[in-house]
């Protein structure tokens, strides 16, 4: 008899404790669901302060030494020209000479493929990185002056960069965080609740495009280098507890 009473008592206590734990779990679950997730945006427009430009020049000849001597002379002419335009010699970087054999391809009287040696092509690249953006930008647009010196020269479009991008990112993160918090506060206010503690913060990738462009954002971030003027943006997602 006593054993039965003890067993019933233990079972009853277990049932009561179980109900208490279940109630606590439900309460905590409902509390966890009372959250607000918002996304804030930070943007910044800026102008590049560093330009990178390059050009390629070449010579063709059946004699390797002749082609090399002509290319070496072209290098001196280009170097002097750039110096005359105010480009310091220390900002010029000339690549190693690239040598390619040239062939003409055709068929013989029997229809078999043949190739005929057509000389050597030697080429070299000159690159300039400068903070004098306007000067190098103007230089890249007037390569006909180099061509008029008798040099076969091809100019590449310049690339633009910003050396203080880290500072821009820090400010955008601050702005995006502030924007997200203001959105969360407004949502909570309209719902008649109060914003609680921050539970989670997630930062998106930096997107840098030309202003008013149709460039698409990418998952890993976009970094435009073709435009001197740029617009950067970043998102911050915040999750708050709501009381």
UniProtKB/TrEMBL annotation:
GO terms for biological process: DNA damage response. The chain crosses the membrane at residues 6-26. Keywords: Membrane, Transmembrane, Transmembrane helix. This is SIMPL domain-containing protein. It comes from Kaistella carnis. The lineage of its organism: Bacteria, Pseudomonadati, Bacteroidota, Flavobacteriia, Flavobacteriales.
């Amino acid at each position: 008899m006593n054993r039965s009473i003890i067993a019933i008592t233990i079972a009853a206590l277990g049932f009561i404790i179980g109900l208490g734990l279940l109630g606590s779990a439900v309460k905590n679950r409902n509390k966890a669901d009372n959250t607000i997730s918002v996304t804030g945006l930070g943007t910044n427009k800026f102008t590049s302060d560093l330009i990178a430009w390059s050009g390629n020049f070449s010579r063709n000849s059946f004699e390797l030494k002749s082609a090399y001597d002509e290319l070496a002379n072209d290098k001196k002419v280009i170097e002097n020209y750039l110096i005359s335009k105010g480009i310091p010699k220390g900002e010029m970087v000339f690549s190693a000479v690239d040598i390619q054999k040239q062939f003409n391809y055709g068929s013989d009287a029997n229809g078999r493929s043949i190739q005929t040696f057509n000389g050597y092509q030697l080429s070299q690249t000159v690159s300039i990185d400068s903070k004098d953006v306007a000067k190098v930008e103007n230089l890249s647009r007037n390569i006909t002056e180099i061509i008029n010196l008798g040099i076969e020269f091809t100019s590449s479009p310049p690339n633009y960069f910003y050396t203080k991008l880290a500072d821009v990112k820090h400010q955008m993160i601050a702005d995006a965080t502030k924007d997200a918090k203001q959105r969360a506060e407004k949502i909570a206010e309209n719902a008649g609740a109060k914003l609680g503690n921050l539970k989670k913060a997630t930062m998106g990738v930096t997107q840098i495009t030309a202003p008013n462009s149709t460039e698409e954002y990418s998952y890993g971030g976009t970094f435009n280098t073709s435009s001197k003027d740029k617009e950067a943006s970043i998102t911050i997602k915040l999750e708050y507890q709501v009381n």
